[in-house]
Amino acid sequence: MEKTDVLMQRAIEDGVFPGAVLLVAKKDEIIFHKAYGQTNISNGEKVTVDTLFDLASLTKPLATTPAIMILVQKKKLFLGQQLASIIPEFKGTDKAPITIRNLLCHRSGLPAWLPYYKRLVLIEPEKRKHALHELLVNEPLVNAVGQRTLYSDLGFIILNWVIETITGTSLDCFVGKHIYKPLGLENLFFLSPGEKQSEKVFAATEDCPWRGNVLSGAVHDDNTYVLGGVEGHAGLFGTAGSIHKVLVELLAAYQHGRDTFFPTVYTRQFFSRQDKTDWALGFDTPSSTDSSSGTLFSRNSVGHLGFTGTSFWMDLDRSIIIILLSNRIHPSRDNLKIKEFRPILHNEAMKMAFQIGVPASDI
Q: Is residue 360 classed exposed, middle or buried when 0-12, 13-18 and 19+ CB atoms within 10 A define those classes?
């Protein structure tokens, strides 16, 4: 534990991030959970294990993907289903044959990201969703469907549209009802612009040039912000402890260790690496070289990164979970030191987990 603790303290001193929380667990047993640094460099407020972080793209595997998993389980949707059969606006377009599977493993042919917010912010808020849908329908593909892997926020924005179309409700309401509330999670939620959470403490993110202030308790992702704070690729806020509870539920389902509302057959399907890519369905897997997970996670692992400095990795064979939440983009996204730090930290945290109780045969 001491080496991991020293490594995190040194990261604060070296400016990898102003503040962070690290959680290491073996299944539901937390073996390390500690906070470091500051939530905001302007006031010096200390990070605690209850500090809420903007989870950025962890929204994809912690909200959007489980929602799709539930819809597949309920036979409301299937992975090979094409967009044109779900959303009429896509009929007759180059995006008509894109499948749910294509979207989940980033082989849709869609662009990675586009600054839609620059156009949407000029439109009345109640009309922005419709305008976004028009932009998505008319956006040209950059690759043929299924041709190559290109990580795409736009694909998960479309998955949010799929969820809204099938359920008749918003993503935040759907995952709240079917996942977060049943698990008793009060510290995993979406936050609309202007919505107050007076008793909660948030880690600050960027000094936003177009919003004119340091963001705290407001979603960093620009497209999500102008769309009301709830999207398929970003918008989720949470604590490491809350994330751990969701991951434990998914891990239990995968291992068939206990009853869970994620059936084993679907969890195993979603955690399986897809052909010609390092992606599972909605989850990343360790790449063969230079993985952010380091070198000690087995190939049978899943995880994800978030732009704001957040991540989780879960070894499905060893049942080890490592969650790192940081505000590395505070006050600027130009701080890229976390890229070098992540694999070093994961290697040290894995060694710590080995020493505490993982069988020697797994080392």
A: exposed
Domains of the chain: 2-64+173-355 (3.40.710.10), 78-170 (1.20.58)
pLDDT in tens, 89-101: 999 999 999 999 9
* Burial readout 18-38 (b: 16 or more C-beta within 10 A, e: otherwise): bbbbbbbbbbbebbbebbbbb
What pairs with residue 30 in β-bridges?
Answer: 25
Average pLDDT, whole number, for the chain? 95
Give the integer Cα–Cα distance in Å for 302 and 52. 23
What is the helix (H) or strand (E) element at residue 164, kind and residue range? helix 153-167
Q: What is the pTM of this model?
A: 0.96
Q: Is 33:23 a contact under the CB 8 Å cutoff?
A: yes
pLDDT (tens digit per residue) in 58-83: 999 999 999 999 999 999 999 999 99
Q: How many angstroms separate the CA atoms of 356 and 220, rounded?
A: 37
DSSP 52-85: BEE-GGGHIIIIIHHHHHHHHHTTS--TT-BGGG
Element (H, E) at 269: helix 264-270
**HSE of 88, CA atoms in CB hemisphere, 13 A:** 0
Residue pointed to by tokens 């045969």 = 361
Report the C-alpha gap between 246 and 63 in whole angstroms.
10
Q: In this structure, what token pair is assigned to residue 69?
A: 């998993």
